[in-house]
Amino acid sequence: MSLCSVLPLFISTPPTTTTSKSLQRGNRNWALQRLRIVAKSKSDASPSSSTPTSLLSFLCPLLTLLSGKDPSQPRNFTLELALSSLASLSRFAWGKKSIAESSISTEITSELPLSLQLFEFEACPFCRRVREALTELDLSVEVYPCPKGSVRHREVVSRTGGKEQFPFLIDKKNGISMYESGDIVKYLFEQYGEGRSPSLGLLESTVFTGWMPTILRAGRGMTRWVYSRPDPPPGKLELFSYENNPNARIVREALCELELPYILQNVGEGSHRMKLLLNASGSKEVPFFIDHNTGFESGDCTTILSYLFQTYSTVIL
């Protein structure tokens, strides 16, 4: 999908003569109006007040220095998988299974128009919390990676929302644009959770363990690779994944470092999208990656990485 389809910030403020009445109703429409107002107030906040952004700005060069390797070069995948597995363990069960049990029998296809667009980057602990919520809610989303050094997607966020802060969610169906991971998670559960609440500790856990995957992975998925193509692929890339899967994390990191937009098909345990994965790959294992531009398909992490860096770089590897 073209980035031109990104919606501008939508604000709907009730007339002052009906404000008290709308507050008393407390219904779904009022909740959406409130969220729109929250999105606007967050956008108007001073960028300098964003401590997480400042901390990540400090960590970016430090972790890149510690990793010390070109992401396109051959890796020790035993070590890679071990560190990614530790990163998954540090987040316990968050982002592993779907809690939307009533949707298991729902017929799903990959051609459904997607309402949600998420601008984020893989190494960000606050973006991770949103992706964990998306796994729990069994929601697919268009992901627009915004690594440090972005040449496309960060500018879209600044133009659309008013500042460069992540995560940034757009829900085209409801005309919602919003920052702040906690607000985004609460909105997703209010709108798509069918009365459910986030799993215990999801909102609070970022303070205690949210940074562990970022540190354990030495900042992978934080900075744009210098030889990434400046132009996006013409057609869609599609990744079957769930947030806490160690192999899928490594692929998402590469997609972020190459700044490649993709359709994220969440297939956590109990997902109603599992049949779609089985039809595509013949297996329930993730990651499974499809490049609809070339017809490439693979469920092997090392093969996917090799393909991505060879296909979407400006140098011959």
Automatic annotation (TrEMBL):
It holds the Pfam family GST_N_3. Gene3D superfamilies: Glutaredoxin. GO terms for cellular component: chloroplast. Residues 114-196, 235-316 form the GST N-terminal domain. CDD domains: GST_N_2GST_N. InterPro entries: GLR_AS, Glutathione_S-Trfase_N, Thioredoxin-like_sf. It comes from the Eukaryota. This is GST N-terminal domain-containing protein. It comes from Vigna angularis var. angularis. The lineage of its organism: Eukaryota, Viridiplantae, Streptophyta, Embryophyta, Tracheophyta.
